[in-house]
Every structure is written in C-alpha cells, then in structure tokens.
Amino acid sequence: MKKIFKELIEEIEGILSLPIDKNSKLERICILLKEKIHYYNWVGFYFAKNGNLILGPFCGDETEHKIIPFGKGICGQVAESKNALIVQDITKEKNYLACSRKVKAEIVVPIIRDGEFLGEIDIDSHYISPFNSDDEEFLKEVCKIVAKII
Hints:
Blueprint: H1 3-16, H2 22-36, E1 42-49, E2 52-59, E3 67-69, H3 73-81, E4 85-87, E5 105-113, E6 116-125, H4 133-147
Antiparallel strand pairs: 1-2, 1-6, 2-3, 4-5, 5-6
Helix pairs in contact: 1-2, 1-4
C-alpha cells in the first residue's frame, strides 16, 4: 500500500476517535480523501435501506442520485454483488448513472460487517483509468474501519 494511503488510514482512525456524531465523522473522512488524493474528485457514502442505497455524507458536486435501487448503476451493482467494482472509463459501462460530465471513472467498495452489506464508499474521478489495486486495497481498509461506527 502506498505511503499516503497508510498515513490516511491513521488519520481516519483519528477521526473516528473524535467526540462528534457519526455523520460528522463520515463527512470529515470524505473531505480528507478528496483533499489528499488529487484524482478522488467526489467522495461519498451510501447506506443500504429496503433494497435502496441512501446517500449519506459526501464531498464534491451535488448529485441527483440521493436514492439508488440495488442493481442500478455502479453503486447498485456493488450493493447486489457485495464486491468492489472499478470502472476506469464510464463511457464503456452500460449500467452507469451519469452524475456529471466531468466524471470519467468510478470505484465503489462495499461496507460489510459480519457478512451484512451496510453500504458503500463511492469515488468518482475526472480522469480516465486513475484507480489501481492500491486504491481498492486502501478503500477496503477504510470500509472496515467505517463499519465499526455504522
């Protein structure tokens, strides 16, 4: 894992220890990731509820996708499969929910605790092919940490 990712894990663990509410912690994590990783241009959390994903804290441009049915778009596919998904070029993805013309790529990683799908972290990038296995490994670790407070 890249040094920056290891440092960010430590910062995220520090955020979780702060005496603030859950949503404030998640929002700070979104801001941290967006500010520290130049190709993380939109960072947000979605949470599972009755077969839908409900938008939680995020950092980036507003989105019209506040509720996403399981199976719809990249986020919905991850909700169904419970597996991380990287789309390096969204123009090549048939089941994509367009958010912004600026978005070129997306990575979504599920948040799972004790085998139960709780939600996911969604990251959009304004660059084609920005994500690699280090990003996926890092975001899986972020999701393990976040699962403790959900």
